[in-house]
Structures are given as structure tokens and as C-alpha cells.
């Protein structure tokens, strides 16, 4: 299986000021961007914030190509959303919605590009600990995120490999030649992941009285 990028950037080693920024502050910035996406009503403000987040991403040293790839991965979805919103609510609103989504994507990419995965998961556990009193399991929550981060690129890679194989056989327009192999690969991967977790005593609820 070839490696495939996902819509957020992978960790890039560095010593930039953003790398040295405390994890809680980076979490706060991402949360603020998500909250702002519901509050901003002017597309020009969204554009300014998007430009700022792009500047922060470039400061990480991850490079313009990684930024472009993060944006490009969501372009087809945003194109559909933007056209629909343009039709329903007009161009300014459509532009604001698309830019707000891009702000969230770039903010998440800044976080992942400057934070090792293990540190990110440790931070998630620390943030979730206050909810333990309500029955939450921070470690299980972090495990879920870790599995997600590993699974989505794998599935995306499976689809790309199957698509290339179908194209080589002249079947790129045959839905069965694309969907069925990806479905089988995904189910097999899910079973392997479940078996691996079960072998380590993970993934099952605690049934003790």
C-alpha cells in the first residue's frame, strides 16, 4: 500500500516558534477557529483570518506544497458546498462558508504539523480527564483518535490503488470495479485492527460488576 496524504499535514520536525508553543495554546487556537466559523458573518474577515493561518502554517517550515495539498484535498467538497450556497444565499455567504472551512483545515494542519502524534494523543488524554467523573475514558478516546488517524489515510490509499488498477484494465468507469475491492479491503483492515486491539485487551467494554 502506497503512502497517501490526508487533508491535514503530518508532523514536520522543526524548532519554529509554533513548534515551541505549548500544546494547550495550539488546541485553543484550533478551538477558536472552529468557534469563529460560526460567528463570523463577513467573508472579508474570514479571508484575513485564512491568510493569517496560512502564514502561521508557513512559519512551521512545512512548506507551501504541504499547505497547498491540505487545501487541495478538500477542494472538491468545498466546490460543491460553495456552488450550492451561492445558489441558495448568494456569493458573499458562499465565500464566507468556504473560507471558514479552510480556516479550520489550515488551523488543524498547523497543530498536526508541529506536534508529534504521541504528544497530541497525550494532550487529548489530559483534556479529557475532567470528564472521567461522567464515565468517560480518556485513554479509550485517545485510542479512537489514533485508530482514526491511521485508518483514514489507509482507506484513501486503498481507493487510489484500486482506481489505478481499474484504470490499467480500462475499468475506471465501472463502479463495481472501484467500490467492491475498496469495501473488501476496508472490512479486512477493520477486522485486523479489531483483532489486534482485542489481542492487547483493548476495545472491549469493562464488564466487571
From TrEMBL:
<keyword id="KW-1003">Cell membrane</keyword>
<keyword id="KW-0472">Membrane</keyword>
<dbReference type="InterPro" id="IPR003339">
    <property type="entry name" value="ABC/ECF_trnsptr_transmembrane"/>
</dbReference>
<dbReference type="InterPro" id="IPR051611">
    <property type="entry name" value="ECF_transporter_component"/>
</dbReference>
<keyword id="KW-1133">Transmembrane helix</keyword>
<keyword id="KW-0812">Transmembrane</keyword>
<protein>
    <submittedName>
        <fullName>Cobalt transport protein</fullName>
    </submittedName>
</protein>
<dbReference type="Pfam" id="PF02361">
    <property type="entry name" value="CbiQ"/>
</dbReference>
<dbReference type="GO" id="GO:0005886">
    <property type="term" value="C:plasma membrane"/>
</dbReference>
<feature type="transmembrane region" description="Helical">
    <location>
        <begin position="47"/>
        <end position="64"/>
    </location>
</feature>
<feature type="transmembrane region" description="Helical">
    <location>
        <begin position="71"/>
        <end position="88"/>
    </location>
</feature>
